[in-house]
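Preliminary data (for renewal application), calcium ion complex.
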Amino acid sequence: MSMPTVLLSAVFSGLVFVTMTSNGEEDSGNSNGPGGSAGTGEAGATGGSGGGGVCRPGEDRSCYSAAPETEGIGICQPGKAFCDVSGQWIADCLGEITPAAEIYSNGIDEDCDGADASATQALVTRALLTRYFLDDEPETPLSSLRDSSPEGTPVNLNVVGGTVTAAEVDGHRGLFWALVNSAGRGVASVGTTKVEDQLLGAKQLTVEVVLSIAGGDVSEGSAITSLGMGGGFGQLDLRFLPPQNLRFYWNNQLAASWEPLVHERCVLHVVVDTDAPMPADRIKLYRNGVQVSASNNGSPTVPALGTTLNLSNDPRYALGNRSSGMRSFQGLLYYSAIYTTNLSAEEIERNASLLLLDDDDLAP
Ligand SMILES: [Ca+2]
Ligand SMILES: [Ca+2]
Ligand SMILES: [Ca+2]
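Predicted structure:
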């Protein structure tokens, strides 16, 4: 927008008597431009359209109706507002582009916060304990699995056993086990770490994994994630038995069983709340954000009300296997996390939809 200062003085007639000319000289109020005269209340150079006008009909100016800090960032752009015949700015801001919902990992900043975002950046972080994206470069040697949780000292896991490799399938990266009952795992002692510190005595937690399983051990099952002291079934152990039985152990006891489809890449949430009054609500499974009904396979025993997690005596945490021995499944583990709370159904649905899009933390 540009208006001669003399015209401005006419537009705001009655308010501006002394102004500056374009060459910077002080100008007196009696040298207004053509068509306007200070103090008469008329609406400027084109004049004659009635009193009270604040702009010149047909004139335009830049406008932006969203948060000012987003203007000019990402897709966001100002528009134009026009002056109507009565000398008033019309409310519409034509052509402006204001923030929209971010579309993840497309290189475009739709919500105008300065950057594109990946789906994984939008995951719930409330009460997050550990988070492993497992997005190592395929065909490069694995040595450790990085804990990306921003809270506490990271608990990185050591890759041992030789039978697990980094892989990428359909654009999603993860760990691949070619054989059932092999020794490959990511594992670490978690005594004195945040894992023991925050899970010892826990009554609420959520295990979140993305995986696809082709086969598993037929007798004891194959461990997907396991927290334990080496022997038995572990204190917190999610296992797979073919053809499609998932079993969850709590304090070394089979506590829940389900039969969801896991042969194709899917998001699983095991949600524990031993304070839930109804036994059926104490351990729940969600597949892709939808709760799965319980099975009696293996004759599970629901934990008693208020049971706490026992983690004494040097617990070890493992992905894709028990913490010792040979209990791998055949398939892919794309992502694994633990929260120290029972996530809500809404949080689970949100994370499931995000993780189905993307389970890696690669730069968008
Ligand atoms: Ca985007
Ligand atoms: Ca953005
Ligand atoms: Ca991944």
